[in-house]
């Protein structure tokens, strides 16, 4: 006799089970297997190899027997490397034992932070557009996402007054992501100071996703936790994935106030026990000796960014914006008379270019184009998009 339990449960009832980035990638891959020429501009995965120095150290770690559990919070030398980075580069007072937890990528860092921080039914304010996984992570945490739309005309930068208008007695936190996925927006110091003042006034926490911190082409990256009064109410999440093109290594981290850190670590421990031991060893090496790899990658992404903006500005019906960071473009397509889902499906079938509808990121009327592939490959994709749109 089948169980009477019905799925999904209440926490997961709001999670869309289709139409996301991975589903789009699967469809594009199926078309590719059928012999179609597909240009992949949907997945935000750096196309560079991981640093050679990090790979060598990881291999040596395996060969020397570093294949067992580490401290649940992460290997001490990696926690020290993370703490040193934030003290030196971000102006934050971070202690390896009191503030840092090493996680299985930023996805686990964000999920563990939300599970630790949010009470069931509480609200967390998220500027839109936002990384699609946030909605799922918040749902799993049994909290409620309150979206605050931004505007292309304001470079997709969220205004503190718009956040303030969304605050209710149930609001517990604000989630920010700068540089932003999918818009590429970099919040200014003034933006962050205004958000910080609001968080202090309303007694709110801030979760800051800083995975694209190094990918800044215009402006500067500032960690909101470094601003006065914010260290004790900010959780900073990041990872090695984008910075050193180490997506498959699955190493991320939480930098949290001491009052929260032990509970975040307990949550992390019961999700995954600890992060991969030899991958952690490789990331320690990347922190120490892979700055040159990062610089080369950023220089190339800036070149690609400029090329993408030139192409998008020349496509009739598209409204382009110059992203200041990350490696995505987020043009508006509303003038074409199709929603994002319909347009992306049509574009994939018509021209073999795989992109992501803005609806996935909480902002209809846009599409996301990832430019983390070779220069000529991206240009071919943009040429196909232009030709397809001109045929409408």
Give me the secondary-structure category.
alpha/beta
How would you write the strand order of the largest sheet?
Answer: 2-8-7-6-5-3-4
Strand content: 5-15%
Biggest β-sheet strands, sense, barrel: 7 strands, mixed
Helical coverage, percent range:
40-55%
Strands, total number:
12
CATH fold node name of the largest domain? Aspartate Aminotransferase, domain 2
CATH class designation of the largest domain: Alpha Beta
Q: Supply the CATH architecture of the largest domain.
A: 3-Layer(aba) Sandwich
**How far is it from the N-terminal to the C-terminal residue, by CA?**
54 Å
Radius of gyration: 21 Å
Mean pLDDT across residues: 96
The arrangement of helices and strands along the chain is HEHHEHEHEHEHEEHEHHHEHEEEH
Shape, please?
globular
- CATH homologous superfamily label of the largest domain: Type I PLP-dependent aspartate aminotransferase-like (Major domain)
Please report the number of helical segments: 13
Overall number of structural domains: 2
Low-confidence stretches: none
Topology record:
Blueprint: H1 21-33, E1 39-40, H2 52-63, H3 76-90, E2 100-103, H4 105-117, E3 123-128, H5 133-140, E4 144-149, H6 160-166, E5 171-177, H7 189-202, E6 205-209, E7 234-239, H8 240-243, E8 252-255, H9 258-272, H10 277-289, H11 291-313, E9 328-329, H12 340-351, E10 353-354, E11 356-357, E12 367-370, H13 375-390
Parallel strand pairs: 1-10, 3-4, 3-5, 5-6, 6-7
Antiparallel strand pairs: 2-8, 7-8, 9-12, 11-12
Helix pairs in contact: 2-10, 3-10, 4-5, 4-9, 11-13
